[in-house]
Amino acid sequence: MNRTSRYLLKHFGALFSSLFFILFFITSIVFFIKITALTAIIQMNFLELGTLYIYLLPRTLVYTLPITFFIALCITLFNLSKENETIVLFTLGYNPQKIARLFLLLATGLSLLLILNIFVLIPISKELNSNFIDYKKAEAKFNIKASEFGQKFSQWLVYIEKSDDQKHFSGVTLYQVPTPNEDERLILANNALIENTDGKLRLNLEEGKIFEFKKNEIEQINFERMHINSQPKAGIGTIQSVKEYWNGVFVNSKRAYELAFFLLIALFPLASTLIALSIGIVTYRYNKGGIYIAMFATIFIYFAAATLFSTWHPQSAPLVVFILTFFIAYRIYLKYIKTVY
Predict the structure, then answer these.
(1) Cα separation, 264 vs 318, whole angstroms
(2) Angstrom distance (rounded) from CA 334 to CA 274
(3) Least crowded by CB within 10 Å, which of 64, 174, 234, 273?
(4) How many other C-beta atoms are found inside a 10 Å radius of the C-beta of residue 147?
(5) What confidence category does residue 234 fall into, taking pLDDT thresholds of 50, 70 and 90?
(6) In this structure, are residues 276 and 73 in contact, taking their beta carbons and an 8 Å threshold?
(7) How far is residue 237's CA from residue 131's CA, in Å, rounded to a whole number?
(8) Do the beta carbons of residue 102 and residue 94 sit within 8 Å?
(9) pTM for this one?
(10) Is the pLDDT confidence value at 207 over 70?
(11) CA 225, CA 219: separation in Å to the nearest integer?
(12) Which residues cross the membrane (predicted)?
């Protein structure tokens, strides 16, 4: 890499870092607000909120890195044009084609990293995030408190007289309403302990009695220890492999849309590099304004096309939108950059 390339990358890198921090911070706030909304359903401490935030990092990077790359490239080249440094570079033989090759190579590397993130990290983090929330919901379902009526453990109504903490109870009463298959039951126990293992709950009862109310009699059974198990409907702790996760694109329209849309975002740096050159490289005396309108119009049009095509036909959307965008970008580059400079 020659000195001119290093000079361009130095300016680009400084601006890219600053913009990435700003966009990453804004995106993180949006995702963090989404996470904190879960606290209305389940209780989480700060460490658990941080864990959920980490699970959302791969998705955050997919949104922030491509947009940051495009905006940083546009503004970097525009600032060089403003100081007439691009003219100096062209005079020294570093023409727009060399700039295009440099940043197309950089954009290709970034897009490949984002595609790897989409196919590997996002499925894993999404499964971990879903299982963690399911686990906390299961835990919340069995957050039994002392001296409160209407609490349930599985199919049993529960009342306790005293609680030392969230797991140890004394003076426990459980009642099961009669069903077509089971008789009415009542359990009295001196002590109880709740165990939570990977979302599978067990209520351990000590020193108690069971009363079963049959049609013509009442049966009583004394016990020293008894276990009542309760398991969530969905299995917690089982994580799909990456292959199993993305196999869903063939049967799940939502999964297919997600893959198509994410791939288009990942390809945005490569698809938009030539547009960024066309926006950023200008003769400042005649083109002082319009850079920000052009930048945000490009982002809006691309993301709108990505959303629409991913909805209509997700199987072909990445290829169609990427090729169409790259072709339009190349035509704009030929007209405003290559033939002029």
Answers:
(1) 5
(2) 9
(3) 234
(4) 10
(5) very low
(6) yes
(7) 6
(8) no
(9) 0.74
(10) yes
(11) 18
(12) 12-41, 61-81, 102-124, 259-284, 291-310, 316-334
DSSP-H helix ranges across the chain: 3-36, 46-55, 57-82, 85-91, 96-116, 122-141, 242-247, 253-266, 268-280, 291-312, 317-333
Distance, in Å, from the CA atom of 34 to the CA atom of 29, rounded to the nearest integer, reads 9
Q: What is the pLDDT of residues 45-82, one digit of tens each?
A: 788 888 888 888 999 999 999 999 999 999 999 999 88
Q: To 10 degrees, the CA torsion angle through 69, 72, 77, 79?
A: 180
Instruction: Take residue 194 and report the two structure tokens written for it.
Output: 């709740």
What span, in angstroms and rounded, lies between the C-alpha atoms of 204 and 225?
7
Q: How many residues does the chain have?
A: 341
* Average pLDDT score, the chain: 84
For residue 133, what are the contacts with CB-CB under 8 A and spacing of at least 6? 38, 42, 52
Token pair 């996760």 is found at 245
Residues forming beta bridges with residue 124, ordered by sequence position: none
Which pair of tokens denotes residue 142? 């069995």
